Amino acid sequence: MKKLFILVLTAVFAMNFFSGCKKSKLTIDPGFSEHIAAFTSGEISVASAIRIELTDEVQLAVENNMEATEDLFDFSPGISGKAYWVDKRTIEFRPDKWLDAGKKYTAEFYLKKIKKVESKFKVFKFEFTTIKQSFAVNIDGYEPYHIEDLSKNKITGSLITADVVNEKNLTQIITAVQNGKNLPVTWIQNENSKYSFQVDSVLRGEKASEVVVKWDGKKIDVDAAGEEIVAIPSILDFLVLDAKSFQEPNQFIEVRFSDPLNKSQDLNGLVTINKEADLNFEINKNILRIYFSAHITGSLHLKVEKGVKNSMSYPLKSAFESDLTFENIKPAVRLLGKGTILPDSKGLNFPFEAVNLRAVDVRIIKVFENNVPQFLQVNNYDGQYELKRAGRLIIAKTISLTGTDKPLDYGK
Fold first, then answer.
1. Is the omega angle on the peptide bond into residue 77 within 30 degrees of 0, that is, cis?
2. Which end of the chain is flanked by fewer CB atoms within 10 Å, N or C?
3. Is residue 92 classed as helix, strand or coil in its secondary structure?
4. pLDDT given at position 341
5. What does pLDDT average to over the chain?
6. Which residues pair with 216 in a beta bridge?
7. DSSP letters of 41-94?
8. Rounded distance, CA 286 to CA 143, Å?
């Protein structure tokens, strides 16, 4: 009972993530809750397995990770693969290959083959949908491999996908060309379907040039294409390429120069903003990051004077000015993680993030054990439809987020 009680607490706070759970049109008989504790539903990755968790252990001679001898699943559209017993309560169908993206599947689980049940519970029918693939590309800019050699450079960037991508197809999404020559692109996979890439062998000569970075989603069945031109200035010119403001995870300004900077120089007075705040500087090759001692909101004016020097002590060719904006983040609260069930332990924690809020309102709705079938008539386990029919509000409380030992920056 505590398990479901915590689950509904999560549902009350549920917010949309990159891929959300959609309510199925298929009506599931609440009587199945006596036999099935959990099942795959909502929106899943194309690389996912399909899982059924039973309420009780099966009275069969099965071992962990043993292949099921019976044909227990049927899918429409069809999915080739095999079923395995994860343990005596959990069976998992593992497809031979990834599922099709953005497709709705209807599944049938033959409960009658593993236990005796009433006629209406012999076949458990459920639905799930795979995530529709999409992606976004971000180009950081170029930087030299070594500060001693400005002629050899690389361009870094990132690609975020809605779902996992086959590595072979991934390598064909991004291409880069400089002066009619194709440049090699290498990839690094990060967490949460974020991939970092690097365009190598970017040459910087006495004449300015351009690198055209293109992307095409055909290989991952996404109808999207585009390009970005990265200017490569003459090796004889030391100048500011651009300046960007970043709000998260901490506020800072990133200024990208054509050359690596002299790390020993004092930038106070050479790099300024028209706001009352002490500035802290961090140099990484040709990137300068500017941090503030106080939270900044609204517009500011950035000035970079000609006295700023590169790693060879040459000054900027010309001063640089730019207007930047730090938007005040709208008040919001969001969950950490995507789970719907918290572990049953002493002192349960319910982590969340808040911004520009001095307090949050917490409401806990308890679904009683005898009302679980009624709850499941219109919900999956992570649902929150018509809660008043099956649950009762047991706590409504305001939690203050005010700091006690030091002032808090509510804009973070």
1. yes
2. N
3. strand
4. 55
5. 85
6. 225
7. -SEE-TT--EEEEESS--SS---TTEEPSS--EEEES---EEEEEEETTEEEEE
8. 6
Q: Which two tokens stand for residue 31?
A: 């009587």
Q: What CA dihedral angle connects 347, 352, 354 and 360, to 10 degrees?
A: -50
Which two tokens mark 45? Answer: 């990755």
Q: What pLDDT, on the 0 to 100 scale, is given for residue 197?
A: 95
Give the number of other CB atoms < 10 A from CB of residue 391: 21
CA angle 65, 382, 30 (to 5 degrees): 80
Count Cβ atoms within 10 A of the Cβ of residue 344 and give its class: 0-12 exposed, 13-18 middle, 19 or more buried.
exposed
pLDDT at 367: 80
- Could you tell me the two tokens for 177? 């060309």
What confidence tens digit (pLDDT) does each residue in 96-150 have?
999 999 999 999 999 999 999 999 999 999 999 999 999 999 999 999 999 889 9
Q: If residue 272 lies in a helix (H) or strand (E), which one and from where to where? A: strand 271-273
Alpha-carbon span 367 to 393, nearest angstrom: 9
Give per-residue pLDDT as tens, 31-87.
Answer: 898 899 888 888 899 999 999 999 899 988 889 999 998 899 999 999 999 999 999
- Specify the amino acid at residue 382: D
**Which residues neighbour 393 within 8 Å (Cβ) at sequence distance 6 or greater?**
363, 364, 365
Q: Does residue 68 contact residue 49 with C-beta atoms inside 8 Å?
A: no
Cβ-contact 411, 356 below 8 angstroms: yes
